[in-house]
Amino acid sequence: MTLLALFPLLYSVSVFTSTYSPISSFTSPAPFVAEVCTLQNSFKPAFVSKGDYVVGGIFPLHYNQEMPDLNCTYKPPPVKCNGAFRWAQTMRLAVDEINQSSELLPNYTLGYKIFDSCAYPLTGQRAALSVLNGLSEDDSPTCSGASPLLAVIGESGSAQSIVVSRILQPFRIPMISYFSSCACFTDRRKYPTFFRVIPNDDYQVKAIAQLLVRFNWTWVGLVRGDHEYGRFAVQGLMRELQGTRVCVAYQEMIPLLYNRQRALEIMQVMRSSLAKVVVVFSAEGEMTPFLRDYMMQNITGIQWVASEAWVTASVFTGSEYYPYLGGTIGFGIRKGHISRLSDYLQTVNPTKYPNNLLVGELWEALYGCSPFPTSISQAPPCSGQESLLEQHSAYMNTSSPRVAYNVYKAVYAIAHSLHNLLLCQPGSGPFQNDSCAQSNNIHPWQYYLQEVTFNIAGEEVDFDLKGDSVPYYDIINWQRGTGGNIEFVNVGLFDGTKPDGEELVIQEDRIMWTGHQSEVPVSVCSASCLPGSRKAVRRGEPVCCFDCVPCDSGKISNQTNSIECTFCPEDFWSNKDRTACILKKVEYLTYDSLGIALTVISVFGACLTLAIFGVFFYHRKTAIVRVNNSELSFFILFALTLCFLCSLVFIGKPTSWSCMLRHTAFSITFSLCISCILGKTLVVLAAFTATRPGDNIMKWLGPKQQRAIIFSSTLVQVVICAAWLIDAPPFPSRNTHYERSKIILECSVGSSLAFWCVLGYIGLQACLCFVLAFLARKLPGNFNEAKFITFSMLIFCAVWLAFIPAYISSPGNYADAVESFAILASSFGLLFCLFAPKCYIILLKPEKNTKQHLMGKERK
Residue 824 and residue 827: Cα distance in Å, rounded? Predict the structure, then answer.
């Protein structure tokens, strides 16, 4: 029984000796004559050549198949295919070169049997079943001895290769694919005899993932074909994108049998999505009708990322494709050089192949006429002598073959492995008892494909343990050519043999993007968060969809798309844009506008006090100076001068000495001033309450007693200050709590108790002085100083009572300014209340500066 008897799809047993008639089998059966095995249907090869060893070839010589109606009531018509055949010619060329070589397979010839798969798994299955038979289906050898077929070159699509490989596997016939890149073929348990000269898709998806990350395309769409190639490629890409910033907006699938309604639904998703970058894992045959409808929908602005299956498809080079597909970028398989290919393609003409329908279809596609006129063909007749020109670029462009170069390498791989097998020396062979294969009875499983290594056109070809070849891709960009057609421009490469992170090399300045733009297109769900903000993921949406939230004060983000804002160090603060930490602004009462104003006021007050001191000293012998106790007046003026000047200590950068001097200086000087006023008040009260001359009360308030009162009252404050400085002196501190964006340099009081004690003691002195002066305010006399002392103490107390809440609520330099202002205000209050009336009389009313006037005894 022939091999085809194992496959009932092609053969069936008939009981008729005559030609099979479908109608007669359902009407009246003929009398039984003999049981004969008759060929019921035929699947003719495209090209056949005899040789010592036969190699099968399965190519998608056509695309866009139309399946017949299989209702089993009549003989089914053949599958109608429409559409290409340069790859098959490349295989024929390689076989011819090998047969003419004196170094490779001398004395032996290779034959071939090439079938069309129509880029469809079912048709590919039929081609695989046919290729298993001999050169002729009518005269196939029996299933004995070695197989007439030693290896198969094929298939293009991964879906077809899966079918073909599984059919060949029981016979252990090796298969070398030139265009099936599915990662699924690395499983040696399922595909033990599968090899390929195209890189594994695991490398392609790795390259595409790096490309998406490189151009910051974080929101992309995925479109794939309905086959293993597309499914495994998408799974691999999703795996590679894990841990990156790239998210998938949608996944769509083009039906294996093209459905226009489904395609329009996919296009609507593409049109409405924010994803302007679409990655496509599909074959040329599926993309052709899809892109035709895509152009009819007039969709533009999509940046296509093409897989190697269609990125170099010549069918898309027409000028009509450029407005929609221009700028497409993708990874193409490595190109090579086949020196004789162009001349060999030109040898194809209808005269040389008068019965080959493929040549007739080629002529119809190139010239629009038919060299084999039939009733089916509508094209006008051709002479068949037309010359193939360079203008037929889809067929004649051999400047950079890629898939054809893979076919070329695959044929040479088989030839080299067969050559190595035939060179085997008995006793050193790889088989049982170190035997070698018999040259006239070689089995397919005896091939050395796994170990084959050879060099072709400067490239080393070999296979790893999984049957894969070197992972290398050219990066292809679709650009407008001089004639308006699309040209495939090489703009980089991906070398999978290099270390991680170094595989991708791109010349970005040479890339032309979609819409004929030189700027990289943007494809994001959300615009990038600029430095100074962070990403806040939207609930229920992918991580690529987010809102940008500005960083809080004191936090920064100095990178685009930061997830978190980081705190600035303690002495630093965020700048206005929240992009960098800058040193916090250090604030203290310096010589700015406020500091200068306080300085001017302080110096003016001191100068004014000294001027009054001069006036009093100059008129020290006049009645008003003598009556008001000139010595105490000079003490008060001296103390007020110190009070005015001590406010200067509050201006400038705090230091250890200035901090200790600030509070002690002003407390002691004010205590001295109030002590002098207290002494003067006691003198006034004693003087005006004496009932007769020589009362003992004045003896106790003489000059010595007055000095003792001033000294002892001031000494108490000095002791408090000394204890303060010894126990817990004031010190400079950095306040970062009141306002986190600034460092406020201030003087910490050290001991709050001591601070409030010195203020409390001054307040006690002022209150005592106020009470005594208040009691003496109505005593008789033209110049009763008690009235002015009462008013001065009232102002003094009011200023310092207002100071306390203002000081507590004021930060840093403003607290110092408040305290300095309180010192100046109270000093001016004392100065004007105590000495302005006297200066007025001394300078402007000298006639009243007499003892008689002051005693109220002048003549009227």
Answer: 5
pLDDT for position 35: 52
φ/ψ (deg, to 5) at 652: 115, 170
Q: How far apart are the first and last CA of the chain?
A: 166
3-state secondary structure of 277: strand
Give the span between the Cα atoms of 437 and 426, in whole angstroms: 9
- What is the gyration radius of the CA atoms in the chain, in angstroms? 54
* Mean pLDDT (the chain, rounded): 81
Question: Is residue 368 classed as helix, strand or coil in its secondary structure?
Answer: coil
Do you find a cis peptide bond into 155, omega within 30 degrees of 0? yes
Helices and strands, number each (H, E), in the chain: 22, 29
Q: How far apart are CA 729 and CA 243, in angstroms?
A: 59
The C-alpha angle with vertex 748 and arms to 746 and 751, in degrees rounded to 5, equals 165
pLDDT digits (tens, 9 = 90+) for 677-735: 888 777 777 766 655 555 555 556 667 777 888 888 889 989 999 999 898 888 888 88
DSSP result, 528-584: PPPTTEEEEEPTTS-TTSEEEEEPPTTEE--STT-SSPEEPPTTEEE-TTSSSEEEP
Would you give the distance in Å from CA 46 to the centre of its chain? 52
For 617-634, write each residue's pLDDT tens digit: 888 888 777 766 778 888
Domains of the chain, each with CATH number or no CATH: 42-198+404-425+445-456 (3.40.50.2300), 201-336+469-516 (3.40.50.2300), 533-583 (no CATH), 593-854 (1.20.1070.10)
- 846: which residues sit within 8 A by CB, 6+ positions away? none
Kindly report, residue by residue over 564-595, the tens digit of the pLDDT. 999 998 889 999 999 999 988 888 888 888 88
Residue with tokens 């009470």: 771
Tokens, residue 480: 């407008």
Tell me how far apart the alpha carbons of residues 29 and 635 are, in angstroms, rounded to a whole number: 152
Q: What is the dihedral of CA 683, 689, 693, 695, to 10 degrees?
A: -80
Quick: pLDDT tens for 754-794: 888 988 898 888 888 888 878 776 665 555 677 788 888 88
**Which residue type occupies 567?**
F
Q: Is the dihedral of CA 851, 855, 856, 857 positive or negative?
A: negative
Comparing C-alpha atoms, which of 819, 713, 828, 721 is closest to residue 765?
713
Q: Contact 789/773 with Cβ under 8 angstroms?
A: yes
Strand partners, 504: 494
* Per-residue burial over 477-509, b = 16 or more CB atoms within 10 Å of its CB, e = otherwise: bbbbeeeeebebbebbbbebeeeeeebbebeee
Q: Which residue has the tokens 């207002």?
A: 802
Cα angle: 469, vertex 474, 477; to 5 degrees: 150
Contacts of 44 (CB under 8 A, 6+ apart): none
Residue with tokens 């007769």: 692
**Are the C-beta atoms of 811 and 743 separated by less than 8 Å?**
no
Q: How far is CA 295 from the centre of its chain?
A: 32
> Cα separation of 580 and 569, whole Å?
11
CB 281 within 8 A of CB 229: yes
pLDDT digits (tens, 9 = 90+) for 348-401: 888 787 777 778 777 777 777 877 776 556 778 787 777 766 556 666 767 678
Structure tokens at 289: 């009708």
Q: Quote the pTM value.
A: 0.62
Q: Write b or e for each residue in 719-731: b if 16 or more Cβ atoms lie within 10 A of its Cβ, otherwise e.
A: ebbeebbeebbbe
Is 287 within 8 Å of 310 (Cβ atoms)?
yes
Q: Which residue has the tokens 């190639």?
A: 229
In whole angstroms, what is the distance from residue 735 CA to residue 745 CA? 6
The 10s digit of each residue's pLDDT in 273-298 is 999 999 999 988 888 899 999 999 99
Predicted local confidence at residue 696, as pLDDT: 56
Residue 56 phi/psi, 5° resolution? -85, 150
